[in-house]
Amino acid sequence: MSVHCYQALLLFGYKITQKPGGSPITRVCQVVVAAFRKWHIELPLDASLLYEVDGQNSAIEGSRKLEHTSEFEFLDKAAIISSTDAKSDFSANPWRLCTVTQVEELKILVRMFPVWATTIIFSAVFAQSSVFVEQGMVLDKRVGSFDIPPASLFTFNGISVMIWIAIYDRVLIPIARKFTGREKGFSELQRMGIGLVLSIVTMVSAALVELKRLEIARTEGLIHENVAVPMSILWQIPQYCFAGAAEVFTAIGQVEFFYGQAPDAMRSLCAALALVTVTVGSYLSSIILTLVSYLTTQGGDAGWIPDNLNEGHLDRFFWLMAGISFVNLLVYIGCAMRYKYKNV
């Protein structure tokens, strides 16, 4: 009897008395362990021979069944019904045998990982808010009879978010709907991509402001003076507004993507992963700042971000972040184009 026929008979007569449960992380580990345990077993040519429970509902509480996909075939080995499984007193051991739905849960997470990773750079870029404040400290903060605290310009970020949410819902979605035929106008991946583009524009805007500021510092002979230059702090408003627009597209699209594409029983976990990028991005931002400070101060140079910004090149730092964001955008586009939406 061939291996495939034997597997077919095992599948026909195989019943389990226990359902795979546990936390989402536990289920992921079970698939990995089960797949490695059966690394030497050949996969059946017919995917229907892989193990799955009968009926409309999956064996995972609160989750619909997921259709089998051909990607990451090694993980499918976790759903192969071996002769050992059949002899185990018809009792399921999820560390040896997993359902197709459980395997597909992990496949979805693996497919989403590259998209998740590319949004870390986005979070790192927007963790540079402290640098925006430093830039504002060496600009003219007087507006009429008022002194504008640099940190108060974050108000324009919030205002931008509110305005762009209204524009997105009332203007962009109806227009996009006519071209894409989608009820939401843009897909989540398209929305995130637009936000990544806007993050580049944010850094370019900040770099242009800094270039002009340094030019004025040189003209006024203030290079070696740790003082503000005669250039209004209001020139920073565009970069805060672009930042707000980027957040509307990427941050919200990111949450929608991870929640919508997550398996039913992993939605909370995947939504949390979207928020984890903020933390990871903050750490990455600190690493970038540390490296820039170390590398640009070699040989006794003042560096790009010295205490006296008039002697530095903060513009180069903004161009660097724009360049990193551009490369990240290209990687994201590649990941988004290859991404396959889940089958239910």
Automatic annotation (TrEMBL):
UniProt main location, coarse: membrane
Keyword Endoplasmic reticulum: no
UniProt keyword list: Membrane, Transmembrane, Transmembrane helix
Domain of life of the organism encoding this protein: Eukaryota
GO cellular component, one term: membrane
Pfam families reported for this sequence: PTR2 (PF00854)
Membrane topology qualifier: Multi-pass membrane protein
Recorded GO MF terms: transmembrane transporter activity
Spans traversing the lipid bilayer: 113-133, 153-171, 271-297, 317-339
Cellular compartment(s): Membrane
Family: Belongs to the major facilitator superfamily. Proton-dependent oligopeptide transporter (POT/PTR) (TC 2.A.17) family.
PANTHER family the UniProt entry points to: OLIGOPEPTIDE TRANSPORTER-RELATED
Protein name: Peptide transporter PTR2
Taxonomic source organism: Aegilops tauschii subsp. strangulata (Goatgrass)
Species classification: Eukaryota, Viridiplantae, Streptophyta, Embryophyta, Tracheophyta
